[in-house]
Structures are given as structure tokens and as C-alpha cells.
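Deliverable D5.2: sample structural annotation.
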Amino acid sequence: MGHEHSDWLERWRSHLHEAGLSQDDVIGRKLIKHHAGPSRHYHGLSHLEFLFGEIDAHRDQIKDLHRLIFATWFHDAIYVSWRKDNEARSADWAVHSLGSLGASEALQSSVGYLIRQTANHADGGNDNDDNLFLDMDCAILGAPADVYAKYAKGVRAEYWWVPKGRYREGRKAFLESQIERRPLFLTKVYNARYGSQALVNMREEAAGL
């Protein structure tokens, strides 16, 4: 494991310690390896870095910090672009792992639930913490235009196996469904911060497809 990944392992250890859980480098190394995989053009370590930054920025609004931290670690743990059960499989991995680390059943179930909800962000969660996390996970939609363009390119690269025409149709359908959502984000803070730019980004991408 290189220096960069060693830093990630230290972060994993720190999160376990803060949550009062058992130390387990095996799980941490496996998670990091999955997120650092060569096919992770968007859903990789940089996405985790962004989410942890958002969590830090909104700590004063979060009631159950550990739920969001471990949801971040596990929510894209399994990501294969041609499968439809990534969220369910990632949630199962999270529940099993957290159980082995000594987490309460409440933490296990709430993390598993939140990860499953990432299959459809629009459905929202059980409380504001859930909704904050779901908004964080799709906040890239409202990123500056250059960052958004890199994201869109990364998603296309992850769907390399889809023919160009078919990808355009599917991507455009996704964008149009998001553009029609009102409000776009589940929380006021994310609508205020990202809502307007997200609409600009998605409309521009859709127009270019």
C-alpha cells in the first residue's frame, strides 16, 4: 500500500477509534483497494474525500456523525456499472463488517438503510442526517462547470461498455428526470448552495448529448 493509501488507512483507524469500534486493518485495506480500483473514474477515493469534507463542513447540523462516516466508507464499496444491486451488496457488506467491529445493531441497521437509499436519492431518508448525506452524495451535480465536466466524463468512462447511442439516451433520461425534480436537493442548505448551478450543468450536458 502506497503512502497515499497509508493515509487512508490511518483515517479508517481514526474513524474506528472515534466510534469506539475494534481496529481491523483487513476491512479498511479492502475498502481502500475497492475505491482505488482502475475502473473507478468517478466513484473512487476522490469521491470519498469530497464526502468527508462535506461531513466536516456540516458537523454542527449532524446528530449521528458515525452513521454518515461509515455510510461514506461503504456506500460505493461495491460498484460494478452493469449491475443493479451495488447498493444492496454494499449495504450488506457494511452491516456485516460493522457487526464484526462491535457496532450496535442500531448503527448497523441505520448505515445499511442509508446505503440502500442511495439507489434513489429522491426518496429521501428517515431524518435530516440521512437527507444531508443523500444530498452530499449528489452535490457534484452543482459543482463548478469544469468540475462537473470532469465528473460527467468519469461517469461515461465507468460505462465504457455501453454503446454511444444507448449511453446518450440513458444519460439524457437521467438528466431530464433530475431537472424536473422540485426541489432538486432534499435539504435547504444544499438547494441554496448547489441547486441553481446544478440545473445549469445538467441542462448544458443534456443539450450536448
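Annotation notes: The first helix runs from residue 3 to 18. The chain has two domains: 3-137, 141-208.
The annotation will be released with the project's public dataset once the embargo ends.
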